[in-house]
Amino acid sequence: MTREIAVSLASRLCAGGMAKPPIIAAFRRSFYNSTSFLDELYTSEDADDALIAACTANEAGLLFDEIARDVHVVAPTLPDFVALSHIRHAVVVTSDHTTLIYIAPTLRDIAVLKTHLPQSQDIVARLRITTPARLSEFLRLYYERALADNAVNIVETTSRGFSARIVVTGRQGILLGLLTASILFGLVLAPSCLWFIVHMLFSVFFSGCILLRLLAMRAMVRRETRVLPTVPAYKLPVYSIMIALYKEADVVPQLVRAMTKLNWPRSKLEVTFVCEADDFATIAAFEDQKLPYGFKVIPVPGIGPRTKPKALNYGLQLSRGEFVVVYDAEDRPHPNQLLEAWQRFSAGESNLGCLQAPLVIANAHEGWLARLFAFEYAVHFSGLLPWLARNGLVLPLGGSSNHFRRSCLEGVGGWDPYNVTEDAELGTRLARRGFHVEMLSLPTIEDAPTTTDVWLPQRTRWLKGWMQTWLFEMRHPKQFLRDLGFRRFLVYHTLMAGLIVSSLLYPLILVFIAYSGLNLILDNAAAADRGILVYDCMNITMGYLSFHALGKRSSAGKEIKGSILRVVPFYWMLVSVAAWRAVKQLYTQPFLWEKTPHRPAAARESPDPSR
């Protein structure tokens, strides 16, 4: 019966003024994609949603009507983290106490309505047809406060209270106080002994980071782009893309172009641009674009912290995809990246919760800072993360190009809205809940900051978030150890704590090397100081060399032109400045999200995205 209804609906659309070619194309796509003819009609270029809905109403023998803003919604109610986009009806009570039922029907729904409504004239008088987009937007506005509250609180209610909302617990505060008091007593009673113990302890973390790089380099395999087999469109599920933006009006045209290049059936692709409600410039930039079907802008109300993870939690409740990927405003993902991710999920086990695509920097030629940033990404995404993934270790996810099973993402509670490096924290939480994270081969092209005034706040935010993550993961260290197991627990702390400690102490080690070297020249150095000096010199030298060697082993690192090794000492000094700035912010402004501005990259020469 649905076929007859589709033919009849097509005739009504032609009579209503819709051209025949898009109607015929919608029929074809519904066959090849195994989708609804109605959904394909809405995806047609220049589709008139009101005309489609009005003809649908005529076909069903009902009225097409707008939903009034002053009604009270009886159903659906809003459970935690519901996907409102899946809901196709709303029961409302108007101001004059009339009950109305608004629906965005499928062809099957129309068939049921035509069969049973003639015997239910009371229901016919109450039924109204609307478009899926209007129904979704109406429900979003009606439940805006509840959606925002869910976005803020969901991680704490689903993940055993683990959130960065509390920076340091009372017990942790006592331990930090005792540690500080012990150091002060040591400075008074035995300063040289204290210096030796603390120095060697922290140096071990520095050595641990070097060891991880060497292990990753030893096990590195050449990244090969997989040849993706042809997949019939009807087998593909709905895929949701979420992009959180704030003050990004300049890159909106580039971003929309990048999303339209993705190889995925349009009727099964949902692209959500999540913007702050008061970011009028960015929202206006989207209004100036001709957004395809499935591309929508969602304003996020100013409730709770103004952070990217809160915005993503809000958007997740309004998306409908079986799989979800997060991109950044300046991203240009490989057109086939979604296909690779879906095939990897399909071939993997059910506990494969996330896939991380490698991030490749396009503008390494724009100065020494961009060059070092690009090289650092090559070390991280082509060297360290693949090694961690192959060995089943904890992956600190990158903030972009994370592909998730929706069920997995909702099961762990989404993102922590109070963590300013939500990606690394989510990777840890996934591991604790028994999910695996693996790497993709097809990359996403990004741009690096080119000036320190842009780079420094971004790196401060990353390091502050890693500190937040380490602190709340260590609230219950025994449970953390049980969740991860000894091997993953040890590597996690070597990586996470090692990164924080080495970033903070890097300049102090350089000062000690200079001071001890001077004493050695003047023959004033003690034997213990000489031993520490040798250890520090080996640490620093191996740190530089292991970083450089791991990056150069990767295909992305080999393509970066210009000096690397000579500039690494200065780059790491900048990292240390950001680390100390992060410590200050962790105390004074723990939830401050320092925005990284982006600019269009259309005129730049980008690396080959197929690599």
Automatic annotation (TrEMBL):
EC number: 2.4.-.-
The UniProt record lists the keyword Transferase: yes
Keyword Transferase: yes
Keywords from the named record: Glycosyltransferase, Transferase
Protein name, as recorded: Glycosyltransferase
Organism: Phyllobacterium zundukense
Lineage, uppermost ranks: Bacteria, Pseudomonadati, Pseudomonadota, Alphaproteobacteria, Hyphomicrobiales
